[in-house]
Amino acid sequence: MPRLRKVKSFKFRRLRDAHHREKAEDYVEMGAELMTERGEARLTDIAKRFGVSLVTAHKIIDRLQREGWVRSQPYRAIFLTTKGKQLAEESRQRHTVVYRLLRSLGVPDAVAQVDAEGIEHHVSPKTLTAFAAHVRRGG
Questions:
Q1: pLDDT tens per residue, range 55-73
Q2: Of 86, 91, 97, 122, whose CA is between 20 and 30 Å from 113?
Q3: Tell me, what's the pLDDT at 13?
Q4: DSSP summary character for residue 42
Q5: Could you give the 3-state DSSP secondary structure of residue 80?
Q6: Which domains does the chain have, with CATH numbers?
Q7: Whole-angstrom distance, CA of residue 59 vs CA of residue 34
């Protein structure tokens, strides 16, 4: 029985960690997307894209700044740090692999986009590697 408890403990710890990191990934990914599209990522644009209040978006950006993912100044655009840019790229790549896997299984485009957004944050590196290999084989 102790082995089962360790497995469950690890599973839930991994899930909690994934949830904590999920917002950071979403926000830095959105920041990178806005910078590519508009040349800057403003708090108001981020809040609109996520459908949240400015206060909510501000709290998350403050946390991301404390954790070293972004830089921001009052009434200015938000900038990704090197660490934030790397996280955004890793998140985008995971999304692409999961999306391609879902499409290879026959999942409609719109559904695959939405589902990939959730799955990308919770897939383990080993599983993601298997997904990528399957897609490369034409699966």
A1: 999 999 999 999 999 998 8
A2: 86
A3: 72
A4: -
A5: strand
A6: 2-136 (1.10.10.10)
A7: 19
As beta bridge partners, residue 41 has 78
> What pTM was computed for the model?
0.78
The phi, psi pair for 42, rounded to 5°, reads -100, 150
Q: How does pLDDT run across 33-58, given as a tens digit for each residue?
A: 999 999 999 999 999 999 999 999 99
pLDDT of residue 107: 97
What was the pLDDT predicted at 3?
59
Q: What are phi and psi of 54, to 5 degrees?
A: -60, -35
Q: For residue 81, count other CB atoms closer than 10 A to its CB.
A: 16
DSSP-derived letter for residue 108 is -
Name the amino acid, one letter, at 138. G
